[in-house]
Design goal:
By secondary structure, the protein is mostly helical. 63% of the residues lie in helices and 0% in strands. The chain is built from two helices and no strands. It has helices at residues 7-15, 18-41. The longest helix has 24 residues, at 18-41. The radius of gyration is 20 Å and the shape is elongated. The termini are far apart.
């Protein structure tokens, strides 16, 4: 008997190696951290229309 698993999860599990999955998740985490870092650099910066 086959275990009950959502179709999308079956596709990911069938086509992605564990190494590729870990690399993808690490890249997404790094991108999110970079985005937060850039946001923190702009904290307090006056971006009102008069600035431009």
């Amino acid at each position: 008997m086959e275990a009950i698993m959502p179709v999308a999860q079956k596709v990911v599990a069938a086509t992605t190696s564990p190494r590729a999955f870990i690399l993808k998740q690490t890249a997404l985490f790094a991108a999110a951290a970079l985005f937060v870092f850039v946001l923190s650099l702009t904290y307090g910066l006056d971006l009102s229309p008069g600035f431009f």
